[in-house]
Amino acid sequence: ILDQLKHDEL
Amino acid sequence: MNIFRLLGDLSHLVAIIILLLKIWKTRSCAGISGKSQILFAIVYTTRYLDLFTTYVSTYNTFMKLVFIMTSIVTIFLMNAKFKATYDHNHDTFRIEFLILPALVLALLINNEFTIIEVLWTFSIYLESVAILPQLFLVSKTGEAESITSHYLFALGSYRGLYLLNWVYRYYAEDHYDLIAIVAGLVQTILYCDFFYLYITKVLKGKKLQLPA
């Protein structure tokens, strides 16, 4: 889930 | 980074540049909703708080800073430097009717109940409806300058391109975020009526004028 919460979009 | 995402970001950047150039060159912010601009500034500052916690890439950091700073510059130009040209009388949308529901929804539906994640979610919900005061202003005056139409077209295209990016990422990377997707869908749908007028009128050299 942590990876999903790393928002890599703007 | 795929082509849809890149085109979306560039479209977003172009929209902001068009807006700033319009205000600067014509020395006027007539036809622009200061309320939508305030909402966008809230959107960027609440979404990009992760600048302090997470590093994604130089590109990512750079774009976030550009969006935050240009939104503040736009508000300054509208409310200080070119204040006399600002359409107060027509810009009457009550933004608390957008901010409060977005906040409540973010508290209820989010990926994780932490301050930074709730604020990110709030910014996604708020962005989806942040253009409403601008569309409201256009409908009140019944028309928009073509430069304002180009701005709106670029700004609307950005989330539409993101939708394609999300479809691509779902299949290519097995990555998806339902909150962003649903909000992005709502955001793009709100522009549909405008897109129709833009394609049928502005691109044919006519002024964007709403039927009386």
UniProtKB/TrEMBL annotation, chain B:
<keyword id="KW-0812">Transmembrane</keyword>
<feature type="transmembrane region" description="Helical">
    <location>
        <begin position="178"/>
        <end position="199"/>
    </location>
</feature>
<feature type="transmembrane region" description="Helical">
    <location>
        <begin position="62"/>
        <end position="80"/>
    </location>
</feature>
<dbReference type="GO" id="GO:0016192">
    <property type="term" value="P:vesicle-mediated transport"/>
</dbReference>
<dbReference type="GO" id="GO:0006621">
    <property type="term" value="P:protein retention in ER lumen"/>
</dbReference>
<dbReference type="Pfam" id="PF00810">
    <property type="entry name" value="ER_lumen_recept"/>
</dbReference>
<keyword id="KW-0813">Transport</keyword>
<feature type="transmembrane region" description="Helical">
    <location>
        <begin position="115"/>
        <end position="138"/>
    </location>
</feature>
<dbReference type="GO" id="GO:0005789">
    <property type="term" value="C:endoplasmic reticulum membrane"/>
</dbReference>
<dbReference type="GO" id="GO:0015031">
    <property type="term" value="P:protein transport"/>
</dbReference>
<keyword id="KW-1133">Transmembrane helix</keyword>
<comment type="similarity">
    <text>Belongs to the ERD2 family.</text>
</comment>
<feature type="transmembrane region" description="Helical">
    <location>
        <begin position="92"/>
        <end position="109"/>
    </location>
</feature>
<keyword id="KW-0931">ER-Golgi transport</keyword>
<protein>
    <recommendedName>
        <fullName>ER lumen protein-retaining receptor</fullName>
    </recommendedName>
</protein>
<keyword id="KW-0675">Receptor</keyword>
<keyword id="KW-0256">Endoplasmic reticulum</keyword>
<keyword id="KW-0653">Protein transport</keyword>
<dbReference type="InterPro" id="IPR000133">
    <property type="entry name" value="ER_ret_rcpt"/>
</dbReference>
<dbReference type="GO" id="GO:0046923">
    <property type="term" value="F:ER retention sequence binding"/>
</dbReference>
<keyword id="KW-0472">Membrane</keyword>
